Amino acid sequence: MTRNNKLVITAFLLPASILLIVFMIIPFFMAFGLSFTNQRLIPTPRGTQLIGLTNYLRLFNDRLFWTGLKNNFIFVLIVVPLQTAFALGLALLVNIKLKLSKFFRTVYFMPTVTTMVVVSVIWTFLYYPEGLINGFLSSITGGLWSGVDFLKNTAWAFPAIMFMSIWQGVGFQMLIFLAGLQEIPASFYEAAEIDGASSYQKFLYITFPQLKNTTTFVLISTTILAFRLFSQVYVMTNGGPRYSTYTVMLHIYNTAFKRLNIGYGSALTVVFFLIILIISLVQRGLLGEEREVD
Fold this sequence. Notes:
This protein has one domain: Orthogonal Bundle (MetI-like fold). Helices cover 71% and strands 0% of the residues. The chain has helices spanning 3-34, 54-58, 63-94, 101-113, 116-126, 132-140, 157-182, 186-194, 199-210, 212-227, 231-236, 248-258, 262-287.
């Protein structure tokens, strides 16, 4: 690698590196330091004191933390595979060369560029007992479906948020899969056609193996985003009813900014970050990632 190449690479990496250090690495170490204190959002007359591992030991008896963590895992286990499967299916459809393929790509991707808060507000109205979804279900069942207040029903609230989250985020994963599909050489499919391979065999032995790295990236990134579940819960249910949609991110927000306990909120943040990091590393190890060799 020449000196000029190193300078060019450094110039491209520097802006992103600065942002990463300022907005992620430094705040994480600040949170790690605060997690060993009794820091309050509003300073007390006694000031900030070191309290050792007290905040971390408190986690074991924090019922809301464990409730939120359980809900986070349920959300990830359901949303990640469904969203990934739908995204791959949509990518395969819009990759077909049709007149309206670009139009459908835009339509499927539009919810992704819409702010989650805006999407959550709109879907809150849709989920009302008198909303569009209940009206549609009632019409297709001939009036047999009685209106349900989805977001105030413990059985329906979390599935409703999951459905909305899949709809909102599937376009992003679809675009990544689409880029991966377009990188597969057409000669692979031409050779398969000569050998008499069916569409299913082409997908199983060409498309899916060639998308291994793309699928790994999609699964890991979607898992991280799913664990960060906050905006839609905060807007639509605020963790209710009866904590059925409560999450760790919501618990961190309530602890740090409503109960003003920055020290304990920082400990929650550090532990949650480590949980996500470990899961991401395990995912990458299990799925594997092929490297291109020049």
